[in-house]
Amino acid sequence: MDDPRWWLDRRTFLQGGAAALGHAALGPLAPQRASDAPHLLPTDDDRMSWWREARFGMFLHWGLYSILGGEWGGRIDYAEWIRNNAHIPLAEYDTLVRRFNPVRFDADTWVALAREAGMRYVTITTKHHDGFGLFDSRHTDFCVRSTPFRRDIMKEMADACRRHGLKICWYHSIMGWHHPDYLPRRDWEAETRSAASARYTRYVAYLRAQVTELLTRYGDIGVMWFDGQWEQTWTHEMGEALYRLCRDLQPNVIVNNRVEGWSPTPIATPLGDFRTPEQEVPATGWPGVDWESCITMNHNWGYNSHDRDFKSVAQLIALLVETASKGGNLLLNVGPRPDGTFPDESTERLQALGRWMRVNGEAIYGTTASPFSRAPFRATTGTNRLNLFLAEWPGTSLLVPGLRTPVRSARLLADPTQLLPTTVRDLGVEISLPATAPDPSCSVVALEFDAPPDVAS
Length: 457
Prior knowledge:
The protein has helices at about 5-10, 45-55, 65-70, 80-85, 90-95, 105-115, 155-165, 200-215, 235-250, 315-325, 345-360, and strands spanning about 55-60, 120-125, 165-175, 225, 255, 290-295, 330-335, 380, 385-390, 395-400, 410, 415-420, 420-425, 430, 445-450. The chain has about 450 residues and is α/β, with parallel strands linked by helices.
């Protein structure tokens, strides 16, 4: 993923007015992508069903960069892009391998926190742009096997997810700054690190070999979440081949749209099973298309010891509600510390999210987008059901505008045994509420019907 200075690393990406959509686009030439084409609609509903049901997952950014805690050369605002943005020579960056020894890492602790938060899947960086692998790869020594820790972190995470009933998913960067055949070189190291003997085709073979390891050695994988695809060395044809490889190795695996590569001509059939807006929830969602917003708790993806500006619990609940109400998933990021523990702020927020989800999760899981074009609340739709999210308490009554289906029952999820009176009005249905909100962050009213609810636009 990108650090807070991502615009410095994707200058080309932002040309042509692509900034407003940010990372929802597929690559550096967004105007050439048919990003709204119907080909993005998944056809394999069985393959996507668990993911659509889940609605909420954990993102984990962890690697050698975590050791530095965002600090280099007197600056303290770096994170997972630190090697590129701080211009760290390869030989100096390689010394971090000898320092990677997260003795407090416990996969069950991480996964248990994800489960407690109400998350249904975990997506972890197997390899970020710096090229270091958190798994024991047979194709390079630049991996966890060469560290004092030595343990295969991906195996431990996969096993822990299965013990706790969560899906394990892999993030894997198409970039590889460390590999001698990856092109292009970083502009700041072009003169000191010759590319004369580099052959990108060899790097592609290496990339495919590592993806094959990840999809053949760790059991069933829920998602292959690619990134770092925007440089023009990675082509649409390479993306097609990599997508096919993933589906050949694991027919049920879901692959995100960042497998897509560059093309000199418009792409008629964009790749990927879901879109990946980054650090934003699309204003209107994408009706009929699967998507997942990936968002940080603070400002950085990887660990930065000075970044203490974490979103509040209420803000995180609001993000989850907004995403679900627009028909998407939320992939919420944690940047673990170099010793293998989560920042205290992350742990506290995960636990608070869990308390809210234990009461209100049924209004998130397996739901679809709000049917309301305009309403003073967010909503999700279930089978013969509407869930209304009240971040601000409206007082003793709430008008549900345009609702034309008779309400069988209305209740607060925080007090499900107490039925709420409803009255049909000219403009919709009025619900009587208690004087105070049961939850200061966000309360949920569930409406049940004998048929799918009909809401006038």
